[in-house]
From TrEMBL:
PROSITE patterns with a match to the protein in the record: ABC_TRANSPORTER_1 (PS00211), ABC_TRANSPORTER_2 (PS50893)
Naturally occurring in which organism (per UniProt): Polynucleobacter campilacus
Keywords: ATP-binding, Cell inner membrane, Cell membrane, Membrane, Nucleotide-binding, Transport
Source lineage: Bacteria, Pseudomonadati, Pseudomonadota, Betaproteobacteria, Burkholderiales
Residue ranges occupied by any ABC transporter domain in the UniProt entry: 12-228
Name assigned to this protein: ABC transporter
GO MF annotation list: ATP binding; ATP hydrolysis activity
Protein origin, superkingdom: Bacteria
Keyword Thylakoid: no
Amino acid sequence: MVNMTEQFERFIELRDITVKSNGRVILNIQHALIPADRITACIGPNGAGKTTLLKLLDGLIQPDTGTVRYSFAKKTALVLHHTPMIKASAKTNLSMVRDADSTITDEAIAQVIEKVGLGKLASSPAHKLSAGERQKLCLGRAILQKPNLVLLDEPTANLDPNTTEQVEEMIHQFDAQNTDVIFSSHQLAQVQRLAQYIIFIDHGEIKEKGPVGPFFLNPQTQAAKRYLHQELLAD
Ligand SMILES: Nc1ncnc2c1ncn2[C@@H]1O[C@H](COP(=O)(O)OP(=O)(O)OP(=O)(O)O)[C@@H](O)[C@H]1O
């Protein structure tokens, strides 16, 4: 259910989008405005198409049909759930963002390593870092890219409560510094803590979208009602 009267300061407009995989349509969006001026959560069942949507918004994948239009000069950073690390130190892995932006200084890299709490692990092999440490490293890479929109795929999946809190703080900091965030999550309490806006996806379609409060209080579609009910039972 797409509300055509919504107004966003910055947005991404999707029109007549299909994304296929092995001949199967995995994303199908006739028309949607995706806000890029706040913290937005993308939620929905496993396999619904959340990761695919984030990749599409980043430009990592192109749609099979349709158009993606940005109302602003796009500078995105995408942090996927499983990011491979090369067999080198955490610092070297972080430094790889220089491949895309050679102006990033040693000092900036050192500052970001401290900022994400990996100062003591800078020389440790990145592929041996824990899940939480890797995620912090990936967020560090995103910070160094100086994006105006950061796209995070399940940023706290498999993280303990303390690391989850640290990652959520980083998401708040992106927002505070005018870098907007779209993240996917299955953690509804987290979605309510962080997000101002919800995109609910089911079977590759945006079934519902809107401000977080009304969505949780009064979901409009059967699919969203069922998903919320099932997730709350699982919590
Ligand atoms: N590279 C790919 N090759 C084949 N199928 C794919 C590929 N990427 C995604 N799919 C399929 O597209 C559908 C949507 O996947 P996607 O990862 O976007 O869902 P999701 O909502 O992020 O799921 P989850 O909550 O489990 O992470 C799934 O059925 C998945 O199997």
